[in-house]
């Protein structure tokens, strides 16, 4: 028996494909075009091949920015994932206070990135900011515009304040999906609180935690607005992450060829790491389904 296949549904997908092509593919192809050519202005281009990619791979500036970016993302994940889990474990399970906590945890996520940077820029100033003034009053030297450690601490604390809620909400959703029968069985077996977390809660949260790690890594690896508003990449180049360095190269120095090659390599690194996370998540789903 021959089954009739209706291909008309593809027409519904065409607007989406056209939108994606316009908003993603075409700009990407433009960047690829700049990455293999050189320009001396007046819209005149000359073939450069892989020269800019070679230059970026040999650039100490790019590698330094990459290590700073990786260090920042590692610190962010090391703080936010455990902290988010702890917050989720201590949130009420139901009732008014559960709803109140969910709304409260969602508030930092609603604040735009540039507003977050402005808030912490003012908050940390010694002359008018509550944090900077208080630390200076008790004798702690704090100046994020001149001190390397103060700048890093400010940027890290700012990101933790802004995005830990996302991890907490995802972990909380994972905890809510655990049937009460698991807790009742653990109570009958007189399992300790650590045992309940280790063998019941953590395995059930593994899927959402992988999503949280993926989202937080991608966002922290592409961070730009907050540190740029607060420190401008300084003091020196101490908080000049990949995105800030790329903007300085493309718009500040107007080196379009190297900047295009830089952006493609940046994109490929994010794509590769995201693919690794996706593979791990898929394998976990297959294992849980067996």
UniProtKB/TrEMBL annotation:
Family per record: Belongs to the binding-protein-dependent transport system permease family.
Protein name: Carbohydrate ABC transporter membrane protein 1 (CUT1 family)
Keyword Membrane: yes
Cell compartment(s), UniProt: Cell membrane
SUPFAM superfamilies referenced in this protein's UniProt entry, alphabetically: MetI-like
PROSITE patterns recorded: ABC_TM1 (PS50928)
Keywords: Membrane, Transmembrane, Transmembrane helix, Transport
Membrane topology term: Multi-pass membrane protein
GO cellular component entries: plasma membrane
Residue ranges of domain ABC transmembrane type-1 in the record: 66-277
Gene3D superfamilies (UniProt xref): MetI-like
InterPro entries: MetI-like, MetI-like_sf, Sugar_ABC_transporter
UniProt keyword annotation of Metal-binding present: no
């Amino acid at each position: 028996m021959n089954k009739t296949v209706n291909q008309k549904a593809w027409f519904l997908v065409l607007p989406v494909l056209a939108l994606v092509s316009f908003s993603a593919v075409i700009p990407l192809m433009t960047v690829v075009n700049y990455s293999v050519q050189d320009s001396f202005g007046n819209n005149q281009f000359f073939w450069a091949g892989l020269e800019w990619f070679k230059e970026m791979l040999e650039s100490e500036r790019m590698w330094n920015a990459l290590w700073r970016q990786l260090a920042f993302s590692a610190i962010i994940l090391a703080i936010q994932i455990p902290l988010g889990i702890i917050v989720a474990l201590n949130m009420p399970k139901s009732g008014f206070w559960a709803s109140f906590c969910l709304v409260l945890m969602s508030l930092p996520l609603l604040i735009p990135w540039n507003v977050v940077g402005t808030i912490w820029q003012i908050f940390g100033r010694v002359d008018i900011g509550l944090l900077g003034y208080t630390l200076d009053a008790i004798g702690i030297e704090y100046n994020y515009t001149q001190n390397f450690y103060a700048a890093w601490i400010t940027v890290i604390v700012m990101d933790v304040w802004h995005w830990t809620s996302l991890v907490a909400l995802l972990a909380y959703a994972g905890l809510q999906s655990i049937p009460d029968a698991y807790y009742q069985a653990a109570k009958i077996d007189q399992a300790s609180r650590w045992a309940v977390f280790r063998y019941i809660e953590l395995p059930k949260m593994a899927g959402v935690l992988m999503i949280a790690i993926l989202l937080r890594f991608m966002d922290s690896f592409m961070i730009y607005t907050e540190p740029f508003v607060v420190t401008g990449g300084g003091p020196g180049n101490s908080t000049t992450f990949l995105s800030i360095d790329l903007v300085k190269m493309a718009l500040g120095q107007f080196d379009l060829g190297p900047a295009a090659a830089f952006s493609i390599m940046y994109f490929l690194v994010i794509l590769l790491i995201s693919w690794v996370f996706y593979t791990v998540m898929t394998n976990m789903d297959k294992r849980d389904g067996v």
